[in-house]
Structures are given as C-alpha cells and as structure tokens.
User: Fold this.
Amino acid sequence: MEILDAIKERRSIRRFKQKSIGKDIIERIISYAAYAPSWKNSQTARYIAVLDPRVKDRLANECLMNFQFNVNTVNSAPAVIALLTQNKRSGFERDGSFSTGKGEHWQSFDAGIAAQTLCLAAHAHGLGTVIMGIYDEACVKEVLSVPEGFSVSALIAIGYPDEAPDAPPRKDSSTLLSYID
Assistant:
C-alpha cells in the first residue's frame, strides 16, 4: 500500500463486521505505531487492547458519557484500543521543567501522531478504526486499571470494516496554505 493512497483512503469506521482480530495482528499494528515520532524520542504512548466483550461492554455503558454514537461504535467493534500517554514527559526536560511554551499540551500532540500512525497501520492491514474523544477518563482508568502516571489520550475502535464511507469534502490548498515570501 502506498502511503499517499493510505492517507487519502483511510476513513473513520463506525460499523464493523463481527469478526475477531488476532492478537498477532494487533501486535503487528502496535509495532508500526511504535515508529510514531515523539518529543525528543520520549516514546510516551502505551496501548491497552480490549478484546474481552465484558470489559468492552463496561466501557460502552459506563464510560462513554451516554454519547450514543460512540456507544454504538464500541458495541459494533470487536476491539477497542486505549491510547495512553505517560504524563510529565512530552514537552518536559528530565528535571521536570518545560522545554516549550506549550507546557503540557505537547503530550496531546504526541498522542495525536501516535493515534494516526496506529490508524494508518491498521488500514494497511485491512482494518478500520475511529478515534473517539468523548469519554469519562476517570471511568476508563478504573475499568482498564490504567497505571498511575498515565493519561487516557483516546479510545480507538478497531475491526474489519462493515462500511465504506466516502471522503467528506476537503478544503483545497489555496484555502489551507499561505506564504510569506
């Protein structure tokens, strides 16, 4: 799969076939996600793959803040991956001081790169994904026993797509880009 094609073709998938994903495929996807760039190569992203239907059900019914769209998505997906980020590392020096005026915000930037890298790797393996941000973080931490010192940056539903949505219209480069000559 060509990278430029993957960037253009990857879509957020919210309906999945009821076909399980092997741990070997998930491990392969995470091995590619590990190549996502991060602040000073801090590699703060961690992943929890939820395959157990009971735990997935708890996430859907207890942690998604009654946002039915995401509840339906999680219920449809054979797996959910929680993207965790190690706190107080991305954007920080080892002595705990900030390296950037962005403060703790840089952690979110690194998490976004990790999430998109994971989604592109999943797409290359014939899987669909959707990155979800509406959830009760404290609830997710409790249900998944997230270690101290980590934040839940996103929940990513993953599975074999049962839909093929068209790309929404995109702004052209003349709208997105300006030059300083």
